[in-house]
Amino acid sequence: MPKRPFRYENDTAAIPHIRSIAVNRPPVLPSRPLRPNRFQPQRRDILRALALTGAAGLAACGGNSRGNAGAPPGLSAAAGMGQVFVTDRRVKVSGTPEVSLQVRDWQRPGNTGPTIVLLAGLGGNARCFDSLAPALAARSRVVAISRRGYGLSDKPRPVKTATRYYEVETLSSDLKAVLDELGLLRVVLGGHSIAGNELTHFAGHHPERVRGLIYLDTSFDYTKDGDRGGEELPMNRLLDEPKAGAADSRSLQAAIAFSRRKTKNWWPALEANLRDAVEVRTDGSVRMNTPDDVETAVDTAAHGYSPDYKAVRAPSLVVTTLPADNRDLFPWLELPLDAKTEKDAADYLRIFRRARITDSNRLVEALHTPNRLTLDNCCHTDFLMEREAEVLRAIQFMTWA
User: Fold this and answer.
1) Domains in the chain, please, with CATH?
2) Which of 9, 76, 200, 261 is most buried, by CB atoms within 10 Å?
3) What residue spans of 304-387 are helical by DSSP H?
4) Residue 276 to residues 13, 51, 185, 331: CA-CA distances in angstroms?
5) Which pTM was predicted?
């Protein structure tokens, strides 16, 4: 007897989903210190496109993998998951320019589930999935990839055009190269935020390689504006994401402290992602290891790509997050709020939710899928950690025919 569609929407079922958010450009500071945390949405441009990173934690079901005497050579056992082992690899995907990608590969002997490949959002890297991946690895082999330009992957500088080497088509080709190198013929693809573009492009061009798709709080189309219902977003500088100052780059601990101030909950995976995203210099100060022009190239290419869902045939699951309060959307706000800021935040939240719900509905309709999970009272940044059990249950519910 076939499974019924997975559909869980808390108290939001009657409300149409969001679409857009972009992140402000980083402040120009000496030695290119820290950009705004890409795990946090830039509220001012929310209605442009959901351009945030992927985030998942190492906390609840895994964590930093530790060496284990029983692990096969080159592998380490993921804490708390029995005999789930993770291998760190570098996979060459291009010769001109030469590009190799950071790949983390979780396996457990005897698993019979489909292989799941996870892609992070803007600014994220493979460490984003250090919690969800080992949890999924109880049944399936799980592979997480840092796209070119991020984490420990190579970062070719764009030349001739602003987006060269970082177009969605190129990122999709990188994905195919990794699958080919690992001998993965048919997989389930999961992507957070802008990685939805890569999922849609790859599934449309290589349908024979895709068993299923998991859209993790991504957008229908990053080139289109969200539904504001004719309202304007309130202008209030207190709602703007804090910008890093020189002091926030003086040490790794200072960078971590800065990121914690802007994050609803600080998880080990966020710290792991940050550690792979920065370069620690000889004087102890840090700077982002992704060059500004590479960051711009990925961002610009993602927001210039309009996906074609008509070519997608794989069964899909759409996961959407909805912020319910200031902690979900503006975690840096300090109480008590003045009357104007309290009203502006409430108005912003209402407009945000409307846009997000409308956009999610468009994505579900375009994919012709009955399978969706809507998570209320959480945020784009850390829902894969905070609500991991629900996400895991939704993914494992799918048959991935």
Assistant:
1) 7-397 (3.40.50.1820)
2) 200
3) 326-329, 339-367, 383-386
4) 38, 20, 29, 24
5) 0.84
